[in-house]
């Protein structure tokens, strides 16, 4: 059934659109502040040529924003059924593109993750989140899917894990971590919470293995096994092999941490973990970024120093301040109150996406909505955590805020493909 433009316009979730525009606009202001130069006045900017203007991140981001607005129109005009129908094809195409990138891309900072198309550089890993979310949502909306069937779980795991494995092979570990956030969407659709609990337990054990001497861990886990077997005779009689097996797996993880840490992780990745564990170990070396970021945020106080008045920003104390550490510009120039407003915008956007997801009539639309919310939640949490020293520095951009065309385009595609699906929700058949 054909929908009139006026009716379709009324079906678009305009509150989400306004939140998007607010974050993108505020992000551009912060990018301008982070790359602002006192050597070039506002009057002088008008006389600069296009080539010279392209030297400024704020100008290039303005061009990316303009192209993103065009992309928004295209996403909303495309037939909403295409997102479901072409999900697997888009996913396969992205897998091929990741393979090409791994072999063709020029190494940048040790990573082969950027494709250069003339003056434009794009990171396929950013867009892989979109295609993976589509493919996973398409699979989870299958009529014969059984969430507790191990074969279906293996297929879903393969869909989810293949892109991050290729991304890791390109030596870009930060972007690969994002795909773990999709588990939150799968949990909403009926995946056993036991899987999440096991993953959380495994993560906790690995973290303890880095912080606590191995001898203490061996003694602690052996004592726990002895207490469980001593107090619960049923476990002793019927589940002894399982209990011992779990103990062996845990001990194996503790032992394997050293191998993984020293042989698998790259030197810069080990440095990030060391700084997270002990930030004051090398404040002028490995911990410089985080130390300066916390100084910038703390110096902003309640109301901030004012727009373009940040000293940490103005004198380039914080590296990568327009990309990974853009949030410290908010903290320094707009203070605690400004940071609270930005985080409030993100929380409102996440709430709205969940609301949009819950009102979908199709499993595909609902699952995809939760995938979008999960990816955005992970990015915001880790990025802000990086700037205040609560998360390792893994190169995760702040959605709609950080400088960069790939990240802006990928998050725009994630969000507005959901809004396109939502605009036709009343016509969806429940699958």
From TrEMBL:
Keyword tags: Cell membrane, Cell shape, Cell wall biogenesis/degradation, Glycosyltransferase, Membrane, Peptidoglycan synthesis, Transferase, Transmembrane, Transmembrane helix
Bilayer-spanning residue ranges: 12-35, 55-78, 85-105, 154-187, 194-212, 218-235, 242-261, 334-355, 367-394, 400-421
Record's keyword annotation contains Oxidoreductase: no
Source taxon at top rank: Bacteria
Entry keyword annotation includes Transmembrane: yes
Compartments in which it is found: Membrane
Coiled coil: none
PROSITE patterns the record matches: FTSW_RODA_SPOVE
Membrane topology: Multi-pass membrane protein
InterPro entries, per the entry: Cell_cycle_FtsW-rel_CS, FtsW/RodA, RodA/MrdB
Pfam family, one: FTSW_RODA_SPOVE
Main subcellular location: membrane
Name of the featured protein: Cell wall polymerase
